[in-house]
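Late entry, KG4 complex.
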Amino acid sequence: MSLILALETSCDDTCTAVVDGAEVRSNVISSQVAAHERFGGIVPEVASRHHLELVNPVVDAALAEAGVGLERIDSLAVTRGPGLIGALLIGVSTAKGIAAAARKPLHGVDHLHGHVAANFLEPDPIEPPFLCLIASGGHTLLAGVTGHSGYSVLGQTLDDAAGEALDKAARLLGLGYPGGPAIEREARGGNPAAFEFPVAMRDDPRLDFSFSGLKTALLYAVRELGDDGTLEHRADLAASFQAAVVDQLVAKLRRAARGGSRRRRSAADAWDAIALGGGVAANSLLRERVAELCEVEGLELKLVARELCTDNAAMIAAAARYVEPAPYPDYLAWDAL
Ligand code: KG4
Ligand code: ZN
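Prediction complete; structure with ligand written out below:
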């Protein structure tokens, strides 16, 4: 097998991993939540500075945990984009530096390909073809995965990403950052039917998503309730909001699995298997509802561990296996994308 050392710094987590074929030998994530919490969201410049401080120790930790020295690594991999440009640059520069010093090849990886490729890791890797819902803080899309090296976009959000909507809702409800897990926690004590929030696009034949109307609906509800009323009904608001986000994601997955197509291109292929990726795929309600969907429709289901849903470098190594690496010194001219 071939050992890959991967770095991922596209957002606010400094991530490194050592992966041997499909086997994760180490997967280190240094979260910056504490640094961004007081701002209620990610501050790009703060993220870059933290990556700079954390990246070398986190590389050392990944090697140490895997029990290998750099000399044993066959190639390096790094997320080149999309993401926060300053944050990406720290990972790209570091990977270039380490790879060049050791005269190793370097794979440049697309972040979203990484989220798809998390499903190729042990245990129980899934083989294409499958339909993959990627729902994160920056993206929400349905990917048709017919090979290991990429995917085609069957539909995507027309405005906010699902994770972005959850983050904004959490801020509105005073639940802090990151919003997805905070909404999930608060929702446990709430009634998902207490507020009727719109599930956009449910009856739209396309496979696209929209979350901005839902966000506005929550804003109006909060205004109407006032501060005290919002606090009193916070669990119900969180549960109802989460349910509306999940309803839309599941409705589109169902439509896509049955062979619904983007912009009436053709009565496109139906799919036999569904996988999830991105931070929102860590959500328990979504995981339950997708499992139900697969049961009812007779589809194979692949759910990776939660720590492989949110940003991590193991998924970048998983994708790198299917991306031709650039030899030394060709990658020295690389920029973040
Ligand atoms: O994939 P990811 O870690 O970073 C991006 O590529 O954006 O996704 C982060 C997003 C955030 O919006 C966060 O609130 C959301 O994933 N998220 C969740 C959960 N954990 C993270 N959303 C719902 N439920 C969760 N348990
Ligand atoms: Zn991500």
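Confidence is low (pLDDT under 50) at residues 262-267. Will revisit in the morning.
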